[in-house]
Write a structure and sequence with these properties.
The protein has 266 residues and is mostly helical. It contains 9 helices and 7 strands, in the order ααααααββαββαβββα. The protein has helices at 2-15, 42-46, 64-70, 75-80, 96-110, 114-129, 154-165, 180-184, 255-263; strands spanning 135-136, 150-151, 169-170, 173-174, 221-224, 230-234, 239-243. α1 runs parallel beside α5 (96-110) and α5 crosses α6 (114-129). The longest helix is centred in the middle third of the chain and has 16 residues, at 114-129.
Length: 266
């Protein structure tokens, strides 16, 4: 779910003219012009189509994702040092490392002091939406762990969902750029079967739709978190759903069935 918040924070900086979707993302590890990663763009990373080698497997405690989160102290640095495994934009691969690279790039785009970066999520997003409980934890390098570590009450997560339901506006104020929500929920070109947009899931998939996705409106999209924590937005029904229960194990929570129950469909 935190990944979708990083989407919004990046969107704020795009609206402010401090980031560009299709400009090279400023990453120190890729700064050499002859580095094949030098031209990677924010759009490609938001689409999880960077081509960087990263394994999103939680079964191996020394694998990429767990070692990045708990063994390095610098999640973005670890991920940014990965080589390309495929040409940029041509292969979709879900990667927490990709989001942490974006999270660190936000620091450079925000500019100013370190305090400006640390206060940025609150200034740009949480305070305007009244998300008083929201907190994103930093790692030892003081970079927000944008892949994984945001905490908020269900009501505050619902406020975040309402921001997207309202096309990026809040109380008449534009928070996200015009067209940002549409971009976020348009299938990434390389994503298989249109399952993923720009840091939002467009399908629940087998883990959370054990009984199938029939009956769920096709415009529904999701911020899918850990062990059954899910935020769903259904624009056609003006509906935001937040579920923060803990359901351990593959298929332990059938979110599709839950949504059908809320929508009153079979």
């Amino acid at each position: 779910m935190t990944k979708s918040v990083v989407n919004a924070l990046a969107g704020v900086l795009v609206r402010e003219g401090k980031l560009a979707l299709d400009g090279p993302l400023r990453v120190p590890e890729w700064s050499a012009p002859d580095d094949p990663r030098h031209a990677l763009t924010l759009r490609q990373l938001l689409h999880m189509s960077s081509g960087l080698a990263f394994t999103e497997s939680y079964g191996n405690p020394l694998g990429d994702v767990l070692w990045m989160l708990f063994g390095t102290g610098d999640a973005a640095g670890f991920a940014a040092r990965k080589p390309l495994a495929a040409p940029a934009g041509q292969r979709w691969s879900y990667s927490s490392g990709t989001t942490n690279i974006i999270s660190r790039a936000l620091r450079g785009a925000v500019g100013g002091t370190e305090a400006d970066y640390q206060l940025f999520p609150r200034r740009a997003l949480f305070e305007p939406l009244g998300m008083t409980s929201a907190l994103i934890e930093p790692d030892a390098a003081e970079t927000f762990v944008g892949s994984s570590l945001m905490f908020a009450t269900a009501r505050d997560w619902a406020r975040f969902g309402l921001l997207f339901l309202q096309d990026g506006t809040w109380d008449g104020r534009r928070i996200l750029p015009e067209g940002w929500v549409a971009f976020s929920v348009t299938p990434a070109p390389a994503a298989p079967d249109g399952v993923y947009g720009a840091h939002f899931w467009l399908r629940l998939g087998g883990d959370y739709a054990g009984s199938g996705e029939h009956g769920i409106p096709p415009d529904a999209y999701h911020a899918i978190g850990h062990e059954g924590q899910i935020l769903t937005v259904v624009p056609s029904h003006r509906l935001v759903v937040v579920r923060l229960g803990l359901s351990v194990g593959r298929g332990a929570w059938d979110h599709a069935a839950f949504l059908r129950h809320l929508l009153g469909v079979g």
